[in-house]
Protein 1
Amino acid sequence: MRKKTMGIVMFLVFFSLIFMGHISILDAADPYVIGYLTDITGDASDNYAPDSEGFRVYMDLVNARGGINGHPVKVIIEDGKSEPARSAAVAKKLIFENNVLAICGLGFSRSQPPVLALAEKEGVAVITGYTGVVGDIYNTKPGSISFATGHNMHPDFHTSAYASARFIQAVKPKGSTVAITGFATPGARFWRDLQEKWLKGMGYEVIYGEDIPTNTVDFSPWVNKIAKISPDIYYGIEGSTQVIPQILALEKMGYTKDIMIPDFTPEGDLIKGMKRLVGSGEWILWGGRWATAYEDIPEMRKIKEAMEKFGYKYPISARHFNGWVIGRIIEEALTRAGWPCSRSKLISEIEKTNLDTRGLTGGPIQFTPTDHHGPSWWRVYRWNAEKKALVPAMNWFKIEPKEIAKKFK
Amino acid sequence: MQFLISVIILGCIYAVLAAGFVVIYKSSRILNFAYSDMAMLAAYLAVTLTQLLAGPPIIALSICLVMGFILGVAIYALVIKPMAGEPIFSTIIITVALGIVLNAITALGWGGKMESIPLGWSQYYLLPAGIRMSSTEFIIIIATIVFFIAIFAFYRFAKIGKQMRATAENALLASQRGINIYFVTAFAWGIGFFATAVAAVLIGANYQVSLNLGHVAIKAFAVALVGGMDSVEGIIPAAFIVAATELIASNYINPRLADAIPFIIMIIVLLFRPWGLLGTEEEIERV
């Protein structure tokens, strides 16, 4: 009898130990789940696919260091294929099936409205590198879920439109003529319209403005017109698959005046384009919120090392910087939130962000409960054929959201 | 005049693209909806080969065209031939599925990266009347002329070309006369993919290689229908009509109309002449 009782006790102790061990193993292995919704394929893939790589590489590094608060970070990368319906469907999967704490990426303006609407309903933070045509990033109200680390295309305070007008001001004298084309997307359309307004206010003449459908392959209709009217500077708000062929076609047409493009054309693509030019390409300007992969920044070297360690598909670019920085924001917020972390807790921790990007941007990225965008720093670069690199054409300048919004009114 | 050059270049590209579509249809009666994805795959293959192989790009590009031919034959042997005797509708659906698979393979393999195909000659020329042309555009015109001379000569003089014509006209009779119709059709698929690869190389050299390349390739379908699905001769006027109207719309009306124009032309032609400009009326009855 005693033997039997002892056996039962031993059995219970054994199972309790296994059970407790199991719990503790589970506890240690339970990950923070973060979704990254981007466009690995589709019309906007050249802009946004490298972002996801920067984020993934950073999270691989975090996990290799032992995770956050003793927990690994599980990153679920989904391809929205630059299609709003598909993006909404995968966002639904991330939110309801994968129970993600936050969604990052989501660069394509056309895909943002359905995803942000769903995320807002479910209280899931969305940190985008390209926010946003909707939402209240600036003048944020309680319950807002969207944050922005890159360009901003909000109709009320469009930092990109203002910054790109300032870029032109930095390289062209007052009274110069300007042509602007843009992706036929809501964000680019706002951009083109508002940039035109800013430029007119600054004393420039916008003599041509047109949308280009995202799936265009033959750009001769636009290029022939631009070459014919020959503006002093041409600004193209498109991704590299659109902008590079235009640069080449314009050179063929004899147009080698300044051409300016935003920093969402990855530098690797720019290099490929430069190699196809017959001339020096020194008329190409590239600018935005991020430094370039040509600059000798220690943080950039870290990204490069991590990419070499964990594997990569795309050449290092400012797009990687964006993904990397979003990764750092998530890491810091999760560290502060502790374990377990809820969606609302994560949002309130992201709202405390004051991140030194270590030279990847002109200043820190700051979020507060009433401002999910914060101040931003901007700079434009010019291609230097001798150095085979983009070199700064101006110093960083700061944009305060409130300042811009006031000017809009 | 510059507008005319744009029409000629776009027309040449559409013509070569549509040739691949028509050659396949002519011999196998299959509307190949995998066509645009085949073009994209061929373009990325050309990119990889030019990056891997040293020396003049012509070597890598020739290998790519040969690989295109082999792939065409392989697709026929593995996917299309087993469907012989089955309803044609099922085979057409298979080409849709094949397109999705090829698209996925390309996206996975190359990640949708923007690339270009070097032709080894990069220069711009200022011609009389203020016309500007690039070396690539000269190559496109020359390649298109050579391609069509070769394809007409092939159908007219080569034994297998004549067999392909016979098979196209009446497969049963051709097989009763001792023609191996499977071999002939496989060969046609090879030529079809070869033509696709030629067009893909020209597009990749003149514009760029990306996952968007399929958007231009899909216009081959409209060109083929306008010219007549069974008519290689019909492709040339159809390609230039489609290119001219598309560029007129984008230059003088609204660029956003450009993509719709080939299909508007297609609808108009099909309403008044369902067999296409130079297609045969009997062909439509058979379809």
Protein 2
Amino acid sequence: MLLKRIIPCLDVNQGRVVKGVQYVDHVDAGDPVEVARMYDEQEADEITFLDITASHEGRRTIFDVVERTAESVFMPLCVGGGVRSIQDIRDLLNAGADKVSIMTAAVHEPELVEEAALKIGSANLVVAIDARRIDDREDYRVRAGGRFRENDPDAVFEVYTHGGRNPTGIDAVAWAARMARAGAGEILLTSMDKDGTKSGYDLEMVRGVADAVSIPVIASGGGGTPESLAEALDDGPEGGHAQAALAASIFHFKEQTVGSVKARLLELGIPVRPPRVAVDGPRALR
Amino acid sequence: MPASSPRVAVVDYGAGNLRSVTKALERSGLRAEVCGDPASLRNADAAVLPGVGAFANAVASLHAKGLDDAIRDGIERGRPYLGLCLGLQLLFDSSSEHGENAGLGLIPGRVDRFPERDAEGKPLRVPHIGWNEVRFSGEHPMLEALPERDIYYFVHSYRAKVANAAGQVGVCEYGGLEFTAAAAEGSAFAVQFHPEKSQSSGRRVLDAFARWIDSC
């Protein structure tokens, strides 16, 4: 049976990890390649680099990071952030990424997803969606008068771009379904309300999207404990129905390894790849 | 890498990045060389056909470069051949990806998209992405060095089915449906998963490949 995936995520700015991995003292915690190597040793199921470099000049640094990672780590690597064109996707795949995620460009130019799926294939193509719960419905309905078919006045979750700052008026569930039809191979769904809170995933959002598409869904935003990851991955009526859970702070700051999280997930009945490496704390704490 | 190490051609048909495959082969003690012309492919001790991209494009590109005949010749002469992902699918008779297209025809069987429904009639998520268990069976030098079952990383929307059971040496199940995860014919051995992305499990596969080459 296909197992549920646990995916550590690193924010990378100009080639350096932004949120430090505090407990690591044997490796250069600022070097994404070193951190990727550590997660490889812990048998993470995949790793995701999110390039948050704002300056145009700094954007080349990610290619070097991806190349060095692909040469030293034998695990699946997904790269996203600032991907705007077919050429960007190709360049990242050629550098050694296994999957590339696009977000803002897909909102601005949905045809890009269709073109990329046709030319490059769906399997390598992830569409990232940042979304928030709609709290001011009147305000939303004004925005929802836009050009998208996915403007549902009764939507519960709205798609945002630019790191959760810019609302789009687009219903997140309908958008995910459209992106799946366009040829996305996977949806990376982040709750901007939950992101960084460690208060658990937005299960209603994750479930809403996971049930609306027939491609894999990666839940993101709010994963702070093994129990919250289990909820997002649970296929029961209250669960998130996601195929993978992405998390950052649980691995970067807490006394958890991928192995210790997976051991707990197995206890909770979530089918994950059993850890083969030691599941006790991070190595710097031993 | 000692100069006497077996030389493995990583077949380049223009489908993108070969770095991970090359590095993973080197880690298993092999001298891996990216190879895009038939002459150097014929001179290699063994070949790896990595898998990225679409079936029809790959077949057309292999044919245009004359690499398809070089692969067939190599296999006929008993040179170890390892196909990865699309490199497995290409060995079969045909695929329905983007219309019906002929493959290399070395293994009887065909390649089709996963169905929309699983064995229970529920929607099946495609692509099949992630870690899944493969059960190996049958006789092959590669299998002597592998466990009976292990977990590997997959990412694909199309899957192969052998026409006769003898060609299938590994099976995987997704949504209650079985598909060919490893196939063998003559000196060709191919897997649907990505050993170069499957951490220690994948390394065992490439180590087994290195041992097989040594024994030839």
